[in-house]
Structure formats: structure tokens, C-alpha cells
Amino acid sequence: MTSLPEDLPCRDIVEVVTSYLEGNLDAPLRARFDAHLAACPDCVMYVDQMRQTITLVGSAVDPMAVTPELRDDLKRAFEDWAGAA
Amino acid sequence: MTPDSPTSSAPTRDARAIEADRRLIALLRAGDSAAYMALVDELGPSMLRLAGQFTSSRAVAEEVVQETWVAVLRGLDRFEGRSSLKTWIFRILVNRAKTRGVRERRTVPFASLADSETGDDFEAVSAEHFLPSTDGRVPNHWAAPLPHWETVPEVATESRETLAVVREAIDALPEMQRTVILLRDVEGWDGPQVSNALEISETNQRVLLHRARSKARAAIERHYSST
Predict the structure, then answer these.
(1) If one looks up domain A10-84 in CATH, what number appears?
(2) Predicted TM-score of the model (pTM)
(3) Quick check: helix, strand or coil at residue B130?
(4) For residue B181, which residues of chain A lie inside 8 Å, CB to CB?
(5) pLDDT tens digit string along B90-142?
(6) Radius of gyration from C-alpha coordinates of chain A
(7) Between chains, do A17 and B210 touch, taking CB under 8 Å as contact?
(8) Where are the domains of chain A?
(9) Which of A36, B39, B92, B130 has its CA 20 to 30 A from that of B53?
């Protein structure tokens, strides 16, 4: 195993992973993160599991849907407003 | 970890977005029903989601959405374009829900709630999964290899069981964490949209998202390592 960067151990990787995925790490920290991943298959997998989790959340919950009734009500509200203007 | 960007929307609004908003507002003022309905269809699901965070029933959430559109149309002349039209609409939605007081126990502003849900110690992965910081060789490294999800077909195929585990984990989240993960990962909002609508800092938005996603991941791991 290549030596792991001690200044950014696995235990920290799991706390900055969201900032990493959000593209929010500054360049030096991002470089250290990438260097860690290059040496640590477990953290590669952890990052991948976070990506999978995001996908699973999207599949687990249905987006809200506007019912046809609500849609009709909203349309009527617009027509009332436009008609009165 | 990184300093928060100064403000989330105003300075980055490009001329094209401002122009697009202006054109849309002109269409609405002209009574263009198709343009209006396109906007309703685009924003409606997210508005219901957000209204639902204040309200105990779907019916009340729908009323809040209706009131919001009426307020939006009546207020079009007052829209100054300092934020995007969409952000402005979501702000009105949040304010309608608040002033209506549809949920009596909601007296705490989102920002305070966000603070309380981002305080305390949090561990995305509990400490016992790591070697102690005193370990001579690789301190704070994984103590044991991470269980592989590739070997769990239920996860790989998004089985009903896995999705139920994820739903349960989301239901168990504190309110703000749940709101943020639903808006981000189900309704597809980006970070600035969420922090603008909820009037929380981008940093808090990110921390709430981090905690919510980390807990969902941990729930999946827990479920499949105990069976």
C-alpha cells in the first residue's frame, strides 16, 4: 500500500466527502483528497457509496405531483387575475 | 471546510437569466396562460414539497401553493429582479406558510432550526470503524475493510427492500436535514436554490445535506451487514 497522507486520514475523508462531491473544496484540499483516494481503495468505495446513496434517495421518494384538480384551480386563478387586470 | 461564498444569488446573476425573467414576466402580464402553466408545471412539485414541510396535510399544502400563486400574480409589479423570479416565488411561498401559521409548533425560524441541526458532534461513520488516532502505522484509517455493496444485489438493483430502508432513514431525519435532502436529491434543486428558499447559509445547507446523506448511507450499510 502506498503511504496514506496522514494529514487527511480516512476519518476526515468521510466528513468532507459532501463538500468534495459538491465541488466545494478549495484546490489544495481537493488535491489532498484526490491523493488520498489514489492510495486508498476503501475511501474510493466510500465515495462511490455516497454517490449510490444519492441515486437511491432519488429512487426511494417520488417527487411531488400537482394533481389535475390543483392545476385547474391554479389556471383559473390566473384567468381571474388576467381578466381583472 | 471552505469559506462560504459571500452571497448566494445576487452578484452571480447573469444578464441572460435576468432577461429571461423579464421576458417571462412580460408574458404573464400580457395574460399568457401557456407561459404561466409552464411555470406552474415546473415549480409546482417543489412548491408542494416545500409547503409540505410547514403543513400537516396535503390539503393545506395545496392551499398554501394556491395562495402563493395569487400573491405572486398580484405582486408582479413589485418584483425588482434582485433575486431570480423563482427564488422570489419560493420566498413568498415560505412567507405565506409562516404567516398563515399553519403549523403552530413552527415558531422557530429555519435558520435557528438549521443551526440546531448542524450543531453537536456528528460522525458520518462512527469512531469504532477507524483505527485510533494513536495507531503507530495508519492512525484514523479504516479499521476493517468497508463492506462491499457490489456483493449485495438488493442494493445494486435498487430493490424494494433497499428503497424502503432509504425511505425509513429519510423519515427518521430531523426536519431540516430531511427538507434539504428531499429538495436536493428528489426534487433536483441545487445548493444555492435551497439556501435561498430556506434562508439558511450555504454552509448550513451543505452540512445538513452531508448529515442527511451520510445517515442514509449508514442505514443501508447497517441493514445489509446485520442480515
Answers:
(1) 1.10.10
(2) 0.84
(3) strand
(4) 57
(5) 999 988 887 765 454 555 667 787 888 888 789 999 888 999 888 888 888 89
(6) 23
(7) yes
(8) 10-84
(9) B39
